[in-house]
Design goal:
- This protein is α/β, with parallel strands linked by helices.
- It is built from 19 helices and 16 strands.
- Strands 4-3-5-2-6-1-7-8-9 form a 9-stranded mixed sheet, sandwiched between helices.
- The longest helix has 40 residues.
- The protein is globular and about 100 Å long.
- InterPro entries: Dynamin, Dynamin_GTPase, Dynamin_GTPase_CS, Dynamin_N, Dynamin_stalk, G_DYNAMIN_dom, P-loop_NTPase, PH-like_dom_sf.
C-alpha cells in the first residue's frame, strides 16, 4: 500500500463511523480511534483547539463536556465545519460551532446538567490540520459540581471505560504537569484497561506552570511510569489568554519558543509541542488502522454472510399471512420466557464471563447487599444501655423491682426488630429493579417489533409490580409477627442468659463460633524490613478473624477479635493490580503489632465486595439484639 493509500485510511474509517452513526447501529464493530481522557481543567479542550487553530469548544465551570464529541479533522484548502445531525449546513463561524455543540448536548441531556453516551459527530475541514479522528470525553470529576447529580462521577467513569476498554481504541491521557503523575486520573483509568501501557499516549500540559526549579524531564523522557508510546509535552494558552482571545497561531509560536529556550527541554524540543503531537497522532492512528484492518475485514465479511443468510430466510416471507403472524408471535413470546428463565436460573449455552447478570446479581443482593444494609443501621451502645435503663425504671413506676421486667425487655427488642423494615423493603426494591432490567434485556430480541416489545415489557413489568406489593406486605407481616413474640429460647439469647443468673432462660453450652468465610488474602502494608507483603489463609468467624500459614489451618499466625473492628475502602495503587480494603479499630488502637490498620488485598473487586459482605455478616443485627440481652443480664 502506497503513501496515497495510507492517507486514505483515516477518511475511510471516518466514512464507516458516519454510516454507523446515521443508522444508529455499530454492527458490533469497534472502529480504530483515539479517545481523549483527562481530569477537569487538565487542558483537553485547549489541546484540541490548538489542533484546529480555532476556539470552538464549550467552556465554563463544572462539567461542560456532557456528551462524547467525535471530532474528525480533515485536511482541506478551505476551512469550515459540519455536523452529522445537520450535514446540509456548513459552519464557517466557529462561535456558531460552539453554540451548536451546546444546543445539541441539551437536546439529548436536557438542561439539568445530565450526561449521555450518545456522541456528537463534528467534522472540521482546515488547511492547518492533519487527518485525525478523536473522541473528546467528559472530564473526570471526583465530587459533584454545583447542581450536578451526586452519582455523576460514576456515570462519567462508566462512559469513559465504555470507549477506552475497546482494544481498537488508542488512549490519549492528558495530565497537567503541576500535579503528581501517580495521582493522574487519566493514567489510572487508562491503566485499568491497558495495564501494559501499549495503547496509551501520554500528554503533559501546563509545563509552564510548574514551580520554579522543577521540571517534567523524567516524565517526558519516559523514565517515570513509562508508556510504550511515550509522552509528549505541550504548552496551552492560559485562562487569561483564552479570555483575552489570544490568537492560537501566536500561542503555538510561544509554545515553540518555550521548548527551545527551556534548559530541561531544549534537547527534545523537536519532539515536543502541539504540531509534533498532531503529527504523531496522525501516524499512530494510521498505523493502528492498518494493523486492525485484517480483523476488521474478517468481521465485516462474517457479518455480511450472516446478514445474507438472514435475508435469504425472508425471500418467500409473506407478512400478511395470519397463520405465519400467529406462529411468529408465539415463537417470540416463548423465546422471551426461555431467555428470562435462563438469565434467572443461570442455565443455557451462553454464559456471561465478564460481569454478573440476572439471577447472579439477585443472589449477590441477598448475600452481600442485604447484610450490608443491615449493618449500616448505626447505633450507639451507650444510648442503647440508657434506653434499657429508662425502660426498666418506667415499667417499675413508683416501685423498686427485684427482677428485670419482661415488658421492658420486649419494648427494647421490638424497637430493634422494627428497624429491619427499611433494609428488607430496600432489598425487595433492588431485586425488583434487577428483574425489570432482566425483562428489558430479554426483550431486546424484539427490537424489530417495537409495539410487541413495548406490550411484552408492560405486561410482565405490571405483573412483577403486583408481586412486589404482595411481597412487601408479607415482609411487614413477618416483622409484625416477630415483634409480637420474642423467642428467648433462640440460640442468640442463650449465651448471655447465664451471665444474669438465668434471668432470661436456662444456660446451655454455647456452640462453636460459626465460620463465615475462608480464603487467601494478602496483607498488603507490611514493610519490606519486616518481610513485606505476604499471602495467608484467612478464616472469618462470627467472633474473630484468624490467619494461617496455609489451608491446613495447623499453624495459626494471629487472631483478631472482631470487637470494635470496622472495614473501609483503600484506593488501589497506581502500579498495583490488586484490589485493597482495610480493617481498623474504631477506638484508634493498633490492630496488628504497630499497624493502625491492616490492608488486605484481593485479585478482583468482586472478591473485595464478597469479603466485605462476609465481615458485615459477622456483625449483623442479631448481635445488636444480643447486646440488648447482655444489657438486661448485667442489670443495666
Amino acid at each position: 500500500m502506497g503513501n496515497r493509500g495510507m492517507e486514505e485510511l483515516i477518511p475511510l474509517v471516518n466514512k464507516l463511523q458516519d454510516a454507523f452513526s446515521s443508522i444508529g447501529q455499530s454492527c458490533h464493530l469497534d472502529l480504530p480511534q483515539i479517545a481523549v481522557v483527562g481530569g477537569q481543567s487538565a487542558g483537553k479542550s485547549s489541546v484540541l483547539e490548538n489542533f484546529v487553530g480555532r476556539d470552538f469548544l464549550p467552556r465554563g465551570s463544572g462539567i461542560v463536556t456532557r456528551r462524547p464529541l467525535i471530532l474528525q479533522l480533515i485536511f482541506s484548502k478551505t476551512e469550515y465545519a459540519e455536523f452529522l445531525h445537520c450535514k446540509s449546513k456548513k459552519f464557517t463561524d466557529f462561535d456558531e460551532v460552539r453554540q451548536e455543540i451546546e444546543a445539541e448536548t441539551d437536546r439529548v441531556t436536557g438542561t439539568n446538567k445530565g450526561i449521555s453516551p450518545v456522541p456528537i459527530n463534528l467534522r472540521v475541514y482546515s488547511p492547518h490540520v492533519l487527518n485525525l479522528t478523536l473522541i473528546d470525553l467528559p472530564g473526570i470529576t471526583k465530587v459533584p459540581v454545583g447542581d450536578q447529580p451526586p452519582d455523576i462521577e460514576y456515570q462519567i467513569k462508566d462512559m469513559i471505560l465504555q470507549f477506552i476498554s475497546r482494544e481498537s481504541s488508542l488512549i490519549l491521557a492528558v495530565t497537567p504537569a503541576n500535579m503528581d503523575l501517580a495521582n493522574s486520573d487519566a493514567l489510572k483509568l487508562a491503566k485499568e484497561v491497558d495495564p501494559q501501557g501499549l495503547r496509551t499516549i501520554g500528554v503533559i500540559t501546563k509545563l509552564d506552570l510548574m514551580d520554579e526549579g522543577t521540571d517534567a524531564r523524567d516524565v517526558l523522557e519516559n523514565k517515570l511510569l513509562p508508556l510504550r508510546r511515550g509522552y509528549i509535552g505541550v504548552v496551552n494558552r492560559s485562562q487569561k489568554d483564552i479570555e483575552g482571545k489570544k490568537d492560537i497561531r501566536a500561542a503555538l509560536a510561544a509554545e515553540r519558543k518555550f521548548f527551545l529556550s527551556h534548559p530541561a527541554y531544549r534537547h527534545m524540543a523537536d519532539r515536543m509541542g502541539t504540531p509534533h503531537l498532531q503529527k504523531t497522532l496522525n501516524q499512530q492512528l494510521t498505523n493502528h488502522i492498518r494493523e486492525s484492518l485484517p480483523a476488521l475485514r474478517s468481521k465485516l465479511q462474517s457479518q455480511l454472510l450472516s446478514l445474507e443468510k438472514e435475508v435469504e430466510e425472508y425471500k418467500n416471507f409473506r407478512p400478511d399471512d395470519p397463520t405465519r403472524k400467529t406462529k411468529a408471535l408465539l415463537q417470540m413470546v416463548q423465546q422471551f420466557g426461555v431467555d428470562f428463565e435462563k438469565r434467572i436460573e443461570g442455565s443455557g449455552d451462553q454464559v456471561d464471563t465478564l460481569e454478573l447478570s440476572g439471577g447472579a446479581r439477585i443472589n449477590r443482593i441477598f448475600h452481600e447487599r442485604f447484610p450490608f444494609e443491615l449493618v449500616k443501621m448505626e447505633f450507639d451502645e451507650k444510648d442503647l444501655r440508657r434506653e434499657i435503663s429508662y425502660a426498666i425504671k418506667n415499667i417499675h413506676g413508683v416501685r423498686t423491682g427485684l427482677f428485670t421486667p419482661d415488658l421492658a425487655f420486649e419494648a427494647i427488642v421490638k424497637k430493634q426488630v422494627v428497624k429491619l423494615k427499611e433494609p428488607c423493603l430496600k432489598c425487595v426494591d433492588l431485586v425488583i429493579q434487577e428483574l425489570i432490567n432482566t425483562v428489558r434485556q430479554c426483550t431486546s430480541k424484539l427490537s424489530s417489533y417495537p409495539r410487541l416489545r413495548e406490550e411484552t415489557e408492560r405486561i410482565v413489568t405490571t405483573y412483577i409490580r403486583e408481586r412486589e406489593g404482595r411481597t412487601k406486605d408479607q415482609i411487614l407481616l413477618l416483622i409484625d409477627i416477630e415483634q409480637s413474640y420474642i423467642n428467648t429460647n433462640h440460640e442468640d439469647f442463650i449465651g448471655f442468659a447465664n451471665q444474669g443468673g438465668g434471668a432470661l432462660s436456662p444456660a446451655k453450652p454455647c456452640p462453636p463460633p460459626q465460620v463465615i468465610r475462608r480464603g487467601w488474602l494478602t496483607i498488603n502494608n507490611i514493610s519490606l524490613m519486616k518481610g513485606g507483603s505476604k499471602e495467608y489463609w484467612f478464616v472469618l468467624t462470627a467472633e474473630s478473624l484468624s490467619w494461617y500459614k496455609d489451608e491446613e489451618e495447623k499453624e495459626k499466625k494471629y487472631m483478631l477479635p472482631l470487637d470494635n473492628l470496622k472495614i473501609r475502602d483503600v484506593e488501589k495503587g497506581f502500579m498495583s493490580n490488586k484490589h485493597v480494603f482495610a480493617i481498623f479499630n474504631t477506638e484508634q488502637r493498633n490492630v496488628y503489632k504497630d499497624l493502625r490498620q491492616i490492608e488486605l488485598a484481593c485479585d478482583s473487586q468482586e472478591d473485595v465486595d464478597s469479603w466485605k459482605a462476609s465481615f458485615l455478616r459477622a456483625g449483623s443485627t442479631l448481635r445488636r439484639i444480643s447486646l440488648v440481652c447482655k444489657g438486661f443480664s448485667e442489670g443495666t
